[in-house]
Amino acid sequence: xxxxxxxxxxxxxxxxxxxxxxxxxxxxxxxxxxxxxxxxxxxxxxxxxxxxxxxxxxxxxxxxxxxxxxxxxxxxxxxxxxxxxxxxxxxxxxxxxxxxxxxxxxxxxxxxxxxxxxxxxxxxxxxxxxxxxxxxxxxxxxxxxxxxxxxxxxxxxxxxxxxxxxxxxxxxxxxxxxxxxxxxxxxxxxxxxxxxxxxxxxxxxxxxxxxxxxxxxxxxxxxxxxxxxxxxxxxxxxxxxxxxxxxxxxxxxxxxxxxxxxxxxxxxxxxxxxxxxxxxxxxxxxxxxxxxxxxxxxxxxxxxxxxxxxxxxxxxxxxxxxxxxxxxxxxxxxxxxxxxxxxx
Length: 344
Fold this sequence. Notes:
Layout: E1 23-24, E2 30-32, H1 41-57, E3 60-64, H2 70-84, H3 88-92, E4 103-105, E5 109-110, E6 113-114, E7 118-123, H4 151-176, E8 194-200, E9 212-215, E10 221-226, E11 229-233, E12 236-240, E13 247-251, H5 253-258, E14 268-270, E15 278-285, E16 292-293, E17 311-312, H6 313-322
Parallel strand pairs: 1-12, 2-3
Antiparallel strand pairs: 3-13, 4-7, 5-6, 7-8, 8-15, 9-14, 10-13, 10-15, 11-12, 11-14, 16-17
Family: Belongs to the iron/ascorbate-dependent oxidoreductase family.
GO molecular function: metal ion binding; oxidoreductase activity
Keywords: Iron, Metal-binding, Oxidoreductase
């Protein structure tokens, strides 16, 4: 994996190291989305209520009956494995930089500790290059590896299908909050959605390192195709069992703020092991750069005032990205920094 070897940069603080034994979470909501195609308004209302309950109580849930073709998922997974099987120099040819943060990377940090993984990042829609790129602006332009047949087509098809699922899920979340139809979609006219391929190689010290350290997703929601993730439940980490044909839907920080804490972004992390490689494909559904994130006016009042100050999604996201490349002197920006009564 590009010469990666265990050193102090990967070592988690003692209180955050993986537990020798992890229990399997029970009672995780498994929601069948097929009523969305039934045309039955009452069935969709019941489905929205399920989504709302899961978002309040868990911050994530699994979905089946989502309409994403199995062959579309299989092609994307095959493309993922083909890319990470490339020689190090081939992957390095599409390596990302801080000013151009798409492509391959093997030195990402979460909570100021290096993750035991390598990644490949894409955006679902390429925005036009910023006019002031030379002046320090971030340029989001996909880097496609050469001579990898079908790679681009497989991932573009997958991202297109997941956007349809994300929009359906967004509408269900809005319906569960009694918002008018299309209320949340207005924040996604030019979404900054991005898609990631994760590869977690066998690790010589899985008792010290994590594939991804504890974190919450900053966007509106995440659609995750995965084989093994840990979630915090009642203060303890529990393993989410993989259900074939399902996706995990995470409530993100942005949805937590919009809902004024009715829904909570779930903290999660990824474990590694000595024996086998692991893979995941998260799709991060993010609002437009110019979106202002704050509790929605329909969900606040005299008895439930806004719990967060407004902030720019674009500025927030750029600041979050800066922590991926280096160890910072302070913890990276979190939505808690915008909580009322705290200084942002």
